[in-house]
Amino acid sequence: DAGITQSPRHKVTETGTPVTLRCHQTENHRYMYWYRQDPGHGLRLIHYSYGVKDTDKGEVSDGYSVSRSKTEDFLLTLESATSSQTSVYFCAISGGQGASPLHFGNGTRLTVT
Amino acid sequence: GENVEQHPSTLSVQEGDSAVIKCTYSDSASNYFPWYKQELGKRPQLIIDIRSNVGEKKDQRIAVTLNKTAKHFSLHITETQPEDSAVYFCAANYGGSQGNLIFGKGTKLSVKP
Question: Mean pLDDT, 10 residues at a time, over chain A (113 residues)?
Answer without folding.
Answer: 89 97 96 94 94 93 97 97 98 88 96 97
